[in-house]
Amino acid sequence: MAYRAPVEDIAFILQSVVPLAPVAATARFAEATPDTVAAILSEAGRMATEVLAPLNRNGDLTPARLENGAVRSSPGYAEGFAAIAEGGWIGLSADPEHGGAGLPQTLNVAVSEMMAGACLALQLNPLLTQGQIEALQHHADEAMKQLYLPKLISGEWNGTMNLTEPQAGSDVGALSTRAEPDGEGTYRITGQKIFITWGDSDVNENTCHLVLARLPDGARGTRGISLFMVPKYLPDENGRPGVANSLKVVSLEHKMGIHGSPTCVMSFEGARGWLVGGEHKGMAAMFTMMNAARLGVGMQGVAVAEAALQQAAAYAGERAQMGSIARHPDVRRMLACGRAEVFAARAIGLACAQALDLATATSDPECTARAAFLTPIAKSYGTDVGCRVADMGVQVHGGMGYIEETGAAQYLRDVRITPIYEGTNGIQAIDLVLRKMSDGGEMAFRLLDEIMDGAKAAQGEMPDLARAVWDAAETLREATVTMIESGQTDRLAGAMPYLNAFARVLGAHYHLIAARKGDEARKRLASIFVTRVLPRNAGDLAEARAGWADLDALPDAAFAGAA
Amino acid sequence: MAYRAPVEDIAFILQSVVPLAPVAATARFAEATPDTVAAILSEAGRMATEVLAPLNRNGDLTPARLENGAVRSSPGYAEGFAAIAEGGWIGLSADPEHGGAGLPQTLNVAVSEMMAGACLALQLNPLLTQGQIEALQHHADEAMKQLYLPKLISGEWNGTMNLTEPQAGSDVGALSTRAEPDGEGTYRITGQKIFITWGDSDVNENTCHLVLARLPDGARGTRGISLFMVPKYLPDENGRPGVANSLKVVSLEHKMGIHGSPTCVMSFEGARGWLVGGEHKGMAAMFTMMNAARLGVGMQGVAVAEAALQQAAAYAGERAQMGSIARHPDVRRMLACGRAEVFAARAIGLACAQALDLATATSDPECTARAAFLTPIAKSYGTDVGCRVADMGVQVHGGMGYIEETGAAQYLRDVRITPIYEGTNGIQAIDLVLRKMSDGGEMAFRLLDEIMDGAKAAQGEMPDLARAVWDAAETLREATVTMIESGQTDRLAGAMPYLNAFARVLGAHYHLIAARKGDEARKRLASIFVTRVLPRNAGDLAEARAGWADLDALPDAAFAGAA
Questions:
Q1: Contact B556 A326 (CB under 8 A)
Q2: Is A314 on the interface with B (CB under 8 A)?
Q3: Closest residue by Cα to residue B346 from B310, B373, B311, B383
Q4: What's the CA dihedral at A142, A145, A150, A155 to 10 degrees?
Q5: Catalytic residue selected from B180, B405, B422, B474
Q6: CA–CA separation, B20 vs B38, rounded Å?
Q7: Residues B14 and B138 in one domain
Q8: What's the CATH code of the domain at B515?
Q9: Do residue B115 and residue B181 come from a single domain?
Q10: How many domains is chain A partitioned into structurally?
Q11: How far is residue A78's CA from residue A98's CA, in Å, rounded to a whole number?
């Protein structure tokens, strides 16, 4: 079945569950009127459904490939990219001064979800570019902004993030790429980078690499790292792509999925680069880019889950066997839980985006803290739901799910990268329980207050659901106190299950709001989430409390099978 | 890292947890002395590790392919198959009268696990052949046994199971393949079959298809189905492959994994076949074959989990980043839970095999009922653990896990078929709560008694673990009563989570025995299972009790995203 962008569900959430109204009420985002929002969602949905979704299989069957040192994209990807660029979708929330539309991130996140659901491998290109736009807006000097932002926003050029090196995975501080001043105000960058998404392509005219490298006087570790803009073609005096820079694509990775997205090994061989932000301040700029991308990746999970669920439901509905297998209790159980989790993950992601917008518009530190807290949850839970639902989609298809032609397997292979990139979900969980709870858990407790207030408010209308949400929040509060009081290693050992439990309570909270504001079907879906998904918290919270000692005590030999 | 067959773990389970001793104490299996068992495990382990494991990647990179109507196997597969055949592993538990070794199924299951862990795609060939041997032993006449069994046992020929048709997935009764008597005591078979594993190959000299088809007077539905032996080459008067039969491989499926296993679309075009068992008795014979295969598939899940876990642990141990990442709490948590689940699934599978052997040796209906009850649990839980641990293996590798060259992704792609074939796990759950509990839950209660007795016996030695296992069994007993008292649709809706919960209680039971009988590491692993895995039962049992009404009430439109 063809993907249909979930415009109605997103519109309902932005209307009633995580309303955009408070964002649109700010001076900064006054243009985000209900009419504008409706027009944008509908137009982006149409493009995703009609233009991008038909390209999804092409990328899988005909991966991007390297020919004479240049990447040749999958069939139709150039046209798909052009549609995204021409629609103005890349710069939807970018600064109007440089050609952006200046609209809320929330809208951008919603639109990105629809593009990713239609064609994940292609959507990665604008996603990375948007991260680069954000980094430049915050950290580049005016000349660089003037030169690069309009091109990135228009899609004439695209942006990449060059972080990982062969010898250093998540340990960025170990990087060995060097940057040497060349006496002309610029630098010469030398080193190899891996996992560079869309590191080269033929969909537009230039690729702009943001590269982390160490200056000669850079300290060891992350403190000595600087960020450089290293374009594939050096802009000439008119800002047009000119001389080729000294960099090349060494090879493309052979991956489990997202075959349409060229994942490059890049070699910088004295390539010319421009410093972005101050010397040795590279990590701050990179974090700006990564944080934006983390929420985006969470929504990629939601996106593929939506697509996989639609296909599985359509398949189950069409199967003649024993009537429609969608009426088969176990199949219906899987589909219903999947739908309930997709709603929860989408609402969490949009709530995170809403907090980002309010932070931008009001500079209220509470909004900043809220967005920071929700980001790892949105990333990790969204991508886990993506994998869970895509996996369920394969299962609902039975034997046909394992055959590549149905596309169910592609969703699973494609989405499987999302819990890994932009910081593995394990790293998100560490971020949550260490950095984001370094306030003594204050932000967590405020969110729990909000959730319990919501449950109290719903008590009269739907006492059973409200009670279950209240209880789950109360149990989570107790677990939060335990986490806060635990030593760091115990906390790290419990981080992932704790994050999962927090996500479900948030999801139940948004479901409860949806049940109150929505129709009968919304109430039923909320009840399914609370009855069938939320109780999984018992298992996760038991593990969150279990600490480190038993893991530490298990001899290493046990893992290798010699227990 | 190269796969190392888990000989020690299997030997420990057969020694102390699910002892083989009661099986070896029967007249039927008196040859299964401790020395013989040790020799067999060690020899099979050596072959798996040294001969089969090196072939695993070949199948993925160079899939089996169809050339001029014949299947050409992946490089090295013919040699690997020859090693399996020459080792006598195909007929390890087959009837000695026809060349088998007549040893317990339990040993066969253990050996099969090691072969599957080394090279799943290749192991499917003997697995299917073993199912066919079993079906012929029970249902064929003497002449057919004399002709086919020695060839199948020696590996000169192999066996397939032709069940599924394009228009009828799990609904076997809808099949349309016809069988017409040809007046010579044989039949002409006409129809198309899909998903035929190893439906053709060049690893040996003949392929014997057991084909379900309907005789002209066969009733509609499953009652009118008969089973036929349809060899690729008709045996001549000397029992050698002679004239080619009228059947062909139409195409091979392009699958997510197990690329080395040719999955054929078969066309029977008036092919000559011999009736197996009585007219219209095909389903009984096919069930013999499928039941044997179901346990085997469960062990395939365990097998790939073991392989994926070994690789992930080795990778984590080698990673220099932040020291070894195996000391990182979240990574260690994932590896430890994976190891604990692999042990549980393996013990359940071997317990099922033990019950089968005791049933064979003693004809005690209690043993038969026990094996029947444990089969769907072993299949479903084993394969779910397979997917869960292979998925974890990818995650532990981080970005490298998504790159095909590490092999972590192959394990996930390969094992993903196991929850689907030989009856999806949803079908296993239905089998458990309907057929296997049609005794009013008596078998379930007897197993729970045994588990609670075990917990009581452990109380003095390890009170915390014993208490947790006792409580979990008591909670499961209550849920079992609820299931029994529920209407059929409610029971079906709760079947899958109920099965999962039962598997974990069984797993905890075997861990508790291992903790009492084994060393310190065994105690620690048991504690990890009970602390971290068993509590997931709370979520599953909540869902098992949730029934059908809320699923029924959710409008179909909700699945498509229009909720």
A1: yes
A2: yes
A3: B383
A4: 180
A5: B422
A6: 12
A7: yes
A8: 1.20.120
A9: no
A10: 3
A11: 24
Cβ-Cβ contacts under 8 Å, A557 against chain B:
521
Q: Best interface-test mutation with B: which of A253, A346, A402 has the largest number of B CBs within 10 A?
A: A402
Rounded alpha-carbon distances, angstroms, from residue A30 to A7, A111, A363, A379, B546: 22, 19, 16, 28, 46
| Beta carbons within 8 Å of A387's beta carbon, 6+ residues apart | A301, A412, A415, A416, A418, A419, B391
Q: Where are the beta strands (DSSP E) in B300-423?
A: none
Are both A511 and A433 inside the same structural domain?
Answer: yes
Per-residue tokens: A284 = 């701050």
Task: Write out the H or E segment, with its range, that includes residue B275.
Answer: strand B263-276
Tell if the CB–CB gap between A333 and B493 is shorter than 8 Å: yes
Same domain, A191 and A214: yes
The reply to whether residue A4 touches residue B330, judged by beta carbons under 8 angstroms, is no
Report the CATH number that the domain containing residue A248 is assigned in CATH.
Answer: 2.40.110.20
CB count within 10 Å of CB A363 equals 10
Q: Is the dihedral of CA A332, A338, A344, A346 positive or negative?
A: negative
pLDDT in tens, B422-480: 999 999 999 999 999 999 999 999 999 999 999 999 999 999 999 999 999 999 999 99
Write out residues in chain A with pLDDT < 70, as ranges: 1, 169-170, 319-324, 561-563
Domain boundary among A250, A265, A280: A280
Within-domain flag for B322:
no
Residue in chain A closest to B11 (alpha carbons) equals: A562
pLDDT of B563 higher than 60: no
CATH of the domain at B53: 1.10.540.10
Per-chain mean pLDDT for chain A: 95
Please tell me which of the candidates B253, B492, B560 has its beta carbon nearest to residue A329.
Answer: B492
Residue A289 near residue A108, CB atoms below 8 Å: no
Range of the domain at B175: 159-280
Three-state DSSP state, A178:
strand
CB contacts of B522 in chain A (<8 Å) are 563
Least Cα distance to B356 among B344, B347, B348, B367 occurs for B367
The answer to whether B264 faces chain A, any CB pair under 8 Å, is no
Residues 6+ apart with CB under 8 A from B20: B14, B32, B37, B104, B106, B107, B354
Smallest CA–CA distance, residue A560 to chain B, in Å, is: 5
The pLDDT value recorded for residue A22 is: 98
- Which pLDDT score is estimated for B556? 87
Give yes or no for residue B320 having a pLDDT over 60: no
Among residues B154, B171, B201, which one ends one of the domains? Answer: B154
Inside any domain, residue B16: yes
User: Do A71 and A182 lie in a common domain?
Assistant: no
Q: What is the pLDDT of residues B395-407, one digit of tens each?
A: 999 999 999 999 9
Contact status, residue A148 vs residue A88, Cβ threshold 8 Å: no
| Both structure tokens of A363 | 């500079």
Please name the residues between 137 and 196 in chain A that touch chain B, using a CB distance below 8 Å: 164, 167-171, 174, 194-195
Is-contact A4 B560, C-beta < 8 A? yes
Same domain, B51 and B123: yes
Classified as helix, coil or strand, A126 is helix
Compute the distance between CA of residue B355 and CA of residue A224 in angstroms, rounded to an integer: 64
* Statement to judge: residues B111 and B232 lie in one domain: no
pTM of the model: 0.97
Asked whether residue B64 is assigned to any structural domain, the reply reads yes
Identify whether B491 is part of a domain.
yes
How open is the CA angle A537-A540-A546, to the nearest 5 degrees?
140
Comparing alpha-carbon positions, the chain B residue that sits nearest to A555 is B521
Catalytic residues of A: 422
At A423-479, the pLDDT tens digits run 999 999 999 999 999 999 999 999 999 999 999 999 999 999 999 999 999 999 999
Residues B149, B166 within the same domain:
no
Nearest CB partner across the interface for B403, out of A6, A253, A528: A253
